User: Fold these one by one.
Assistant:
Number 1:
Amino acid sequence: MIERKSERTKSAIRAAARQVFALVGYERATIRDIAREANIDPAMVMRYFGSKDGLFADTANFDLNLPQDLGEAPDKAGERMAAHFIAVWEQEGSGFAVLLRSASSNPVAAARIAAVLSEQLLPAVVAMVGPQEAPQRAGLIASQMLGLALSRYVLSLGPVAAMSREQIIAGIGPTLQRYLYGPLAR
Amino acid sequence: MIERKSERTKSAIRAAARQVFALVGYERATIRDIAREANIDPAMVMRYFGSKDGLFADTANFDLNLPQDLGEAPDKAGERMAAHFIAVWEQEGSGFAVLLRSASSNPVAAARIAAVLSEQLLPAVVAMVGPQEAPQRAGLIASQMLGLALSRYVLSLGPVAAMSREQIIAGIGPTLQRYLYGPLAR
DNA sequence: CACGTTTATCAACACTCGTTGACAAATTCT
DNA sequence: AGAATTTGTCAACGAGTGTTGATAAACGTG
């Protein structure tokens, strides 16, 4: 057999876990729920992922994957960044929904979001504006993007969820642009 | 006795509940934890609040309390709004921390945040810019403010938590200003 | 003081959860 | 085919949870 049977089961569990975790969060998701969603026995989850924590750690990952050339067209950076964020989030199984849904109550998820900020967003901003002002600028950007994701995808707040991608980008792009290159308080 | 003894106990429970709920969220908070924090018996919680849900419903309330005169100085509205948000959140026992910490996993909390948007923020924005564009503008404002609160108070993301109130206001005020009165995509 | 009401204590129930281990079935290898 | 390994099933355990009811202590009132 070219592919172990267990790999099929593992990915079925993973897919079900992503779905359930993203929908109800780490605490409310039960192994029994996930197993039922994947049409397997709860014990299989333990066999292949060791524990509920292990499954979550495997499922809740996210790569921001920012383009490297944002700084080459500085006047377009904000808009491009906004568009990139939305594109990455809306691709299925990105793991970001899992992460954000559980971040408020699960320390592991919170730490991973913090890591995305410090290891992916911050370096990109450093490359654009230098190390001096980068933390503050990256922090402001993170606050806007996380707030958008929370409002639109997690809480589904009416007005935010109703906006089109284009409206979102038109609204938030200039904000990111200013957070990147606009004036800053000392 | 001028004040029933039960009122003392009830407010002790309330205070402990706010603290525990705000720290770990609805699901991870246990009645036993809250009771221990308040130095009372778990059964007292049931007597006075009926259920864990009842206690949460009693604890998790929030009034944005926006000033009525924001529209009178339109060029200052964004900055004043930002300053007001921060002031309201940082006053102890505001209940907002409880709400936001649990919003991602608790439907009641999510619904209450949605209600703050639709019943408090939206009407204020309608009064300033009219009903046509208000939903989109209020949605954008909510996304930025929720994201700030999430980053700074719930997740304590380093760069955001490190900023001073003045830096926050200087950074976010202009954003709200543009969300209120700036150009908008159709 | 004695009585009724309010407040507090305690132990237990019923349930759900993550997790485990024994065992069976299927699959692969010799 | 027979043995060994992998994969799956099932029932149960132990811990923790919200919740309840019986019972005691504290308190105000005649």
Number 2:
Amino acid sequence: MPAPKPGAPVRGSSTGRPVMAALDLFGRRWNLRIVWELREDTLGFRALQQRCDGMSSSVLRQRLTELLDARVVEQQPDAAYRLTELGRGAYQALRPLMRWSGEWAAALAGEEDHR
Amino acid sequence: MPAPKPGAPVRGSSTGRPVMAALDLFGRRWNLRIVWELREDTLGFRALQQRCDGMSSSVLRQRLTELLDARVVEQQPDAAYRLTELGRGAYQALRPLMRWSGEWAAALAGEEDHR
DNA sequence: GCGCACCGCTTCGGAAACAGAATCGCCGTC
DNA sequence: GACGGCGATTCTGTTTCCGAAGCGGTGCGC
């Protein structure tokens, strides 16, 4: 299972269009979450695992190698992980989604009311 | 596997914070892609399946029930699927990510050059 | 009425991804 | 030199996904 990259065919699309590579990368479980958790902290392996409610270490390693490969995350000399410049851009791109989740919660709660 | 909803515990987080529910919902394979494909068309089941490079019908059905449940997608009387108001909001929230994928592609391509 | 094509949707066996725990080597500290 | 914490790896069992076949329903030509 190679890390998705723009320009190469990815799971679910053979065109290699960047957007498809991004959809594959972030459509893999935990990848969105990892970017989210690293948004303003640099975390070690185990600390990151804790933040993700104890996701399995094997999958965390797998995801980290994918994100490292995608230049979204980098590893410091002391082995802690943090977002690259590119990764911070991805987080910025994710922020509207976070804002949307608030509207989403409100809408579902409102609909709960008049039922 | 229940569809994630804000206010309820989800995979990877027990807090029920909306953002965690959103990260779970969109961190599931194909969900980002489905919203993307429905961004400006209303599509039938099989048409949608084609757009997603022939994803398996069983998983498509599973994802659609999740998205229907989350009020992100709705079904017309003629059974075709389209984004709800909420779903269009989600797509809008996703657009920066699409823009980012372009920068991402450029950055990776540039690094390819001086190597 | 009958065959046919298309549709949304379901079922099922095999393949791939994930979870979870045990374990390794590597530092520092005491 | 025993200990604890760390990143990382390996292994086994479960969950999820894939892919193909097939279901019932609907519309159409004949």
Number 3:
Amino acid sequence: MTDKKTGANPLFLREEELRQAIELLFFAYRDFTSEADAMLAHQGFGRAHHRVIYFVGRHPMISVSDLLLILKITKQSLSRVLSQLVRDGYIVQQQGTEDRRQRLLRLTDKGVAIERDLTEAQRQRIARAYREAGADAVAGFRAVLLGIMEPPDRSRFDRGRET
Amino acid sequence: MTDKKTGANPLFLREEELRQAIELLFFAYRDFTSEADAMLAHQGFGRAHHRVIYFVGRHPMISVSDLLLILKITKQSLSRVLSQLVRDGYIVQQQGTEDRRQRLLRLTDKGVAIERDLTEAQRQRIARAYREAGADAVAGFRAVLLGIMEPPDRSRFDRGRET
DNA sequence: GGCAATATGTCAACAAAGCTGACGTATTTT
DNA sequence: AAAATACGTCAGCTTTGTTGACATATTGCC
């Protein structure tokens, strides 16, 4: 298709640049999740448990449907993981006051503790990468990732504030 | 732990900044993979098939063991997916000339075609994000993701060239 | 030449985490 | 009173990872 042999071919550079981006995401995400995955395996949990614990910790008293909007999985898939976390005492459900159909979720002390341990390795990994890359690079990292994600979730990152 | 109420607390800002990074990665990766996943489901394949097709396309005549080093999965997991791709005519295996124990992998025309279709959506997504964010942001994006991944794979991104 | 190491493949069993479809209950909204 | 919503559950299926054991072909070394 594109004649790769032509020396200073902008199309080739673009193709190579875009493929590198794809691979950067793959390798970075693979390593980003690997440490927490290993810790979770010890506890008999998986990455899905971490995601639930993380976002419940991040948004205390979140409703089940809002959590589903974040995770973009089916309620049946969430249910299996969430039931285990409730059963094992990491999360408690509490009936909503305004809308009593809701089962609002929050971490127990035990849940907060495991969240801290699990996320700590990821935080340190990011912190090191941020420190080594510098503030300008961090701004670029944010801008590109915001551009990659679908618009609806971008607003979660407005002004360093929670939605 | 850290007193969140203190107004200009650098530790709080740092904590918020790091959590946003974690979430940026989660949301961006979730959406980055979703389109190709949907196309794959049509063909009866999954994300694992895409990864194999992608990296075989990227590194023609790659050995099975080198592919395993990239994917970091077990040979049994790879074998299942790879066998299907060979059976269905997307990949051919060819005995190595220097080391005849090797089964070097390359895409067939059919494999090249599906790789192009699958990766096209991802390339366009990245291209748009790159274009909107600008060259400096792209440099920052690369620097931070390189810092997040484990060192051994960083050399794959030296000088826009393949290893 | 012989033997250990390597590259690859395969069988079997299992687990995590996603999916669809169907159905039920409590509560709110219209 | 009826419809819509929030949530939960049962049942079955798929993809993709895991461990462990074992087999074959080939290479490298002493």
